[in-house]
TrEMBL record:
Protein name (database record): Exonuclease DPD1, chloroplastic/mitochondrial
Gene: LOC101513142
A cellular component term, taken from the record's GO annotations: cytoplasm
Residue span of region Disordered: 60-81
Pfam families named among the record's database cross-references: RNase_T
Amino acid sequence: MKTGSMIFSFLQVPRCRIHSLANNWGETFRNFNNTCEKNFSIRPLGSRIYGLQGGHRKKWTRRPITTDTEEGGGTKSRSTKPEILSETISISSTINVNKTQLGQLQEVQHCNIQEIAQNKDLSSLVTVIVFDIETTGFSRENDRTIEIALRDLQGGPNSTFQTLVNPQRDVTNSAIHGITTQMVNKPGIPRMEDLVPILFHYVQSREKPGGYVLWVAHNARVFDVPFIINELRRCSRQIPPNWLFVDTLPLARELMKSGGTKLSATSLVALREFYKIEVEGTAHRAMVDVNTLSLILPRLTCDLKLTLSGLVEKSFREVDIINSKKKKKNSD
DNA sequence: TGCCAGGCCCTCTTTAGGGCCTT
C-alpha cells in the first residue's frame, strides 16, 4: 500500500459579509424542506459558512505531514450560530491518499439510477454537491481547469472545497473570471494531477456509507462533466462509479417551458435574477457561482415539484455521456 | 486552406440552421 500525504491549505478567505447568505441558506432549506416531500431532507447549513469573495487571497501550500483542521477535526468547537466573520481563516486537511481504498471504490458496479431513485431511504444515501469550474476556455481537449469549487449541501464542518489549479499554460480569458496566468502558473498552485487524489479523498470523506454522490452544476452535461472527465483521463483516473450528475440547465428549460413564470432565459444569471438571489463576489469565480447555484437549486426543484428521488431520476453517469457520444458518432 | 467546443432546443424544421449555455 502506498500512501501519499499532503497538507492542503485550500482556503485563506475572508469570512466577511456573509450574514445575508447565511440567513438565506437556512431559510431556503427550511422552506424547501417544508414544501417538498419529506424524503428530500437536505439539512440547513450549520455553523460554518465561509467567505465568498476571497479569490485573490486563496493560497495553496504544500507542507510536511501535519493536521490542522480548524473546522473539521473536532479539536476546536465553535458556536453554531451564524455570524459575521471578519477574520481570515485557513483550513487544512491531512490528505492520506490510500490507493487501495480508491481502487476498491472504482470496483463498484455502475449504479442503476432508477433503482437508486426508488430507494426509500434515499436521503441517507445521497450526498448532494454543487460544483463549478473555471477554465482557460471552452475546449475540453485544448483548455484546462484553473479553478474548482464545490459545496456539500449537507453543510457542517468542511462543507466547502475551493482551490485554484495550475494549468501549466497561459490563461488567455482572464477578462471572464479575473484569474490570470500569474495567479495560477506558479509553484504554490496545485496541478490537476496533484489535486485529483486530494479531491477524491475529500469527496470520499463527505460520502455516506455505501452511498452516492450527486454532483450538480449548470450546463453540467455539456461543459463541466465532460471537462472533468477529460481532466481525469489526462491524470489516468476515472469518475468513481457511485458519482451521479445533475444538470440544472434542462431543469431551467423545463421551468421556462412550463409557463406561469417570468423566467425569460436559462442562464445562471437569469435564474439568479429570477429568484432575486444576492451573492457577494464576482460572477464567474467558481465559489461564487457555486453559492449562487446552491441557492437556486432548492427553489428550482421546488418550483418543479422535484423531490430528491426525482432529481436522482434526472441524473446521468459518466457512462451515459460516453454512450451518447458513441451513438452520435455512429449516426454521423 | 480552413477550422478553431459541443450538445440541446426551437422552428420560418426534419434532406437544417441558428440561438443558448458553459469558460
